[in-house]
Structures are given as structure tokens and as C-alpha cells.
Amino acid sequence: MAYTLSHVDLDVPDDAMEPYLKTIKEKGPYKNPTFSKKGYRNHPTPRACFAGMTSKLDRDVGKILDLVDKLGLSKNTIIMFSSDNGPTPAGGADPDYFNGNGIYKGIKRDLYEGGIRAPFIARWPGKIKSGSRSNHISAHWDLMASVSELAGTSPAPDHTGISFLPSLLGKGEQKSHDHLYWEFYERGGKQAIRKGDLKAVRLNRIKSGAKGPWEIYDLSSDPGEKTNIASQCPELQAVFNKLANEAATESTLFNWKPRNGKKKKK
To answer: Which CATH code fits 180-247?
Structure first.
């Protein structure tokens, strides 16, 4: 199910928002000056609305779980819950107030952990141990490999995902990625690589080019990416350059040129 909750536009039935109108202090209404032409709708109580959206999502997922149980399908049904990115301040949402990214740096459209780290919860009674946790490093492109293994099929030959089923079931050998790679073409262009506990982030990719400097963080001791250790390990610049060049796939739709194809005039 492709839920839009909790996402902008800020919009939720009154009964979901009402409990928060008296308990949450608002900083003021959200007003979009271009709403008549484009963009997200205005809202008088954006924080209460966002809280109501989150509560409604929680209740609706609960209804699905209850119905699966009632129909006697729980032991033959795996349910997975996740998100696509970190929190956003768009449309009146207020991740600072709700501490939406927790200890992690960055928000949506950032390639720091706060922008790309997302929750993942799975339920399968009798198969997945209740309350268990895993530190396996995975990404959404591993989902197809995982459900393919469940169905006894294989993903496309060029698929690079790795099934995380052994981690979910707590048995079998769990294979891991040597590294994970992300890229984003807006806001100057950004790249990120995670290799083991090391996380490398390159900003201003369009201006700096394929050999621009990487920020480097050790997530084992610095999950909030507060301390850039690049100066302590200069030899890693070439390592991450090589990984990025190998991972990136050229595209006519997404490329490292300015969005309008021309350099902006000062």
C-alpha cells in the first residue's frame, strides 16, 4: 500500500487531528503565498495536523494487521513497513519540532543519514522472531531480491540487490554489499557511499566534478556525522572516487549538468 501519510499536503480528517489541537503548541499557520497557482495547501494548525496524520497512519496499519489476524492469514503473510526518505520541512511540516531525524544529520534531499536512513519493520508470526533486531545494512533495492527468494523466483539478471531474508528469519548465511551508493542531482548535485562503517558524502558535484572532495565519517563512533575525518585519511579520496565512478550509470534524464543545461549568470 502506497501511503502518503505522513507527507505533505498537510491534510487529515478532523477526528484524527482533534486530540492534538489542545496539546501541541503551534508556531502559527502555514501559508503558501503561491498556493493559488501551485504548491502545498495552507493549514491553520500544521503541527496538530501532522501529528494527526501520523496517528491515523498508525491506526490504519493496525486495522490491516487485525484483519489479517482475524482471517487466519498471519502465519502465511509477511508484512513489511518502511519509508522512502527522511523528514521534510516542506508544506508546513516541522521536523525540528517533532525531532523527525533523531540523532541523524540532514533531512529529505540530503545524503547524510537523516536524509536516507529509514525505518524498516517486518512481521511474520512463526517465521520472524517477535522483538528481534538486525544490524544488517540494506537498501530498498534489496527488496526485490528478498521477495523473489520468498516466491522461489529470481530477479532480473542485472539486478544488484541482495536478499535480506536470512536476517529476517534469523537463519542461513546473510550476504552483504561491499558498499552502497546514492546520488542526487538537485541542489548542486550530491553523492554518497557507505562502505562498512565508513560513510563518504560529496557535495557540489556539478561544480567540483568527479574528483571533488569527499567528507568522510565513521558511523560506528559518529552516527550523527558530526566529525569529518577526511583529513585523517587522505588516501580514501581515491578509493571513494573509484567506487563512485564504477557505481554511477550515465543517463540522459539524470546527469551532472546544470538543470537548465547552462551555467547560471551571476
So the answer is: 3.30.1120.10
Helix, coil or strand: residue 76: helix
**How does 83-119 read in b/e, with b if 16+ C-beta sit within 10 Å?**
eeebbbebbbbbbeeeebbeebbbbbebbbbbbbbee
Q: Which residues on adjacent β-strands are paired with residue 218?
A: 198
Side chain identity at 158, as an amino acid letter? Answer: D
Read off the pLDDT of residues 96-147 as tens digits, 9 standing for 90 and up: 999 999 999 999 999 999 999 998 999 999 999 999 999 999 999 999 999 9
Sheet holding 198-202, edge to edge: 180-184, 190-195, 198-202, 215-218
Quickly count: other Cβ atoms within 10 Å of residue 159's Cβ: 13
Would you kindly state where each structural domain of the chain is located, as residue ranges?
Answer: 14-133, 180-247
- 49, containing H or E segment: helix 46-70
Task: Decide: helix, strand or coil at residue 56.
Answer: helix
Q: Which pLDDT tens digit goes with each residue over 23-48?
A: 999 999 999 988 777 889 999 999 99
- Specify the pairing of strand 79-82 against strand 120-123: antiparallel
260 falls in which pLDDT band (50, 70, 90)?
low
Output the CA–CA distances (angstroms, integers) from residue 209 to 85, 190, 212, 250, in the order listed: 26, 11, 6, 14
Looking up cell 542526487 gives 184
The size of the chain, in residues, is 266
The DSSP element (H or E) to which 148 belongs, if any, is helix 143-151
Query: 149-187, pLDDT tens digit by residue?
Result: 999 998 888 888 999 999 999 999 999 999 999 999 889
